[in-house]
What does this fold into?
Amino acid sequence: MAGVRSAVRRVPGPCSHWDDNEADFIRHVLDRVGDKWSVLIVGTLEADALRYSELAHAIPGISQRMLTLTLQQLAQDGIVSRTAYPEVPPRVEYELTPLGRSLLRVVLDLAAWAVDNHKEIHHNRTVFAEGLVSAAGKG
It folds into this structure.
């Protein structure tokens, strides 16, 4: 695969600045922080630390499995911290770390962009799908 990246580097653009290792790491980080659940969790933790159940209620459609997995991954990367309090019943809170806070503005801007543009994107997808159906019928 090294030959593929060397060809890309000859073309101007952001990819020309990174070597193979950097490009792989960038993809891995963006896969992690750019998925829908990570974006929503980071955005939800903007104001304060929250308990697991509060996060689950604040993020519509997230399953318990995905919330648990995504929180573990974000904690592994140092974006979210997990604090367990020795109480009965046990209390666990999640909050953004300084690294997570540095990601917050990007995440909130991305979410706002999605909200601002969802109608146009939905329209474009409908037009595109109709064009595919029309083209398939002409064949």
The chain has a mean pLDDT of 86. The helical segments are 2-9, 20-33, 36-44, 52-58, 64-76, 98-138. The CA atoms of residues 84 and 90 lie 7 Å apart.
